[in-house]
Amino acid sequence: MDPASLASAFVGAQMSQVQMAIAAKMMRISADSAASVVQLIDAAQKNLQSLANVSPGVGQSVNIVA
Q1: Angstrom distance (rounded) from CA 48 to CA 45
Q2: What does the alpha-carbon distance between residue 41 and residue 56 come to, in Å, rounded to a whole number?
Q3: Residue 41 and residue 26: Cα distance in Å, rounded?
Q4: What is the enclosing helix (H) or strand (E) of 22?
Q5: What pTM was estimated for this model as a whole?
Q6: Greatest Cα pair distance in the chain
Q7: How far apart are CA 51 and CA 58, in angstroms?
Q8: pLDDT in tens, 22-47
Q9: How confident is the model at residue 2 (pLDDT cuts 50, 70, 90)?
Q10: Which three-class secondary structure state does DSSP give residue 66?
């Protein structure tokens, strides 16, 4: 193998390591985002459950005067 081929292979290996690190970081960000969405949905469901006991018509006519 000539030195240019070795250098090219080394640069290619370095780039693949960088790409793998970026992909792993993106997967972690995606997983964190998914966990945040699940927490948001869970909180929304808990809020809806607490409003299930409210009598009908509550909050339908709100008069706000500034």
Answers
A1: 5
A2: 24
A3: 22
A4: helix 3-51
A5: 0.49
A6: 83
A7: 10
A8: 888 888 888 888 888 888 888 888 87
A9: confident
A10: coil
